[in-house]
Amino acid sequence: MKVTRGKGAVKKDKNEVVKPVEDRAAGKRKAVLKASRSSNKRTKNVKSAKKDPNKPKRPPSAFFVFLEEFRKVYKQEHPNVKAVSAVGKAGGEKWKSLTDAEKAPFEAKAAKRKLDYEKLMTAYNKKQY
DNA sequence: CCCCTGATTGTTATA
DNA sequence: TATAACAATCAGGGG
């Protein structure tokens, strides 16, 4: 049933009932039961290590930075593809095909993101005190 | 209506 | 050091 949120931000009349995926998709993901995933192959049930309340989101890896662009291109060539896994596989394959020089710009961006993350970490650290 | 899962790799963090 | 969890995306299925 494709909920209204479908593409990203189908702003509802009132307020963004369906907040941008960023809030819920990524935000809750970590916040919400990690135990769920324990059922799966990855993620074992780790009761220890309580999650932090304001833990800043981790910066995207070089691969993710590459994926961001790759997804756009992929969708253009494969508008019919509605599987995220398809892009993931294709992206992963392509990623390995890239050379260090080609990955360099992506890594550079990832590195920059990391710097920003460290800044957030400082604020987080201060808050946690 | 809201949340989870799938698939990729990388990076970060914790034990 | 090693393991675990999560980062984005999109659509669909489950509750």
Automatic annotation (TrEMBL):
GO terms for molecular function: chromatin binding; DNA binding; structural constituent of chromatin. Keywords: DNA-binding, Nucleus. One of its GO terms (cellular component) is nucleus. It holds the Pfam family HMG_box. Residues 1-60 are annotated as: Disordered. GO terms for biological process: chromatin organization. InterPro entries: HMG_box_dom, HMG_box_dom_sf, HMGB_plant. The keyword Nucleus applies. Residues 56-125 form the HMG box domain. The keyword Ion transport does not apply. Transmembrane segments: none annotated. SMART domains: HMG. Residues 39-48 have a biased composition (Basic residues). Its main location: nucleus. Residues 56-125 bind DNA. It is found in: Nucleus. Residues 10-26 have a biased composition (Basic and acidic residues). Belongs to the HMGB family. This is HMG box domain-containing protein. It comes from Citrus sinensis (Sweet orange).
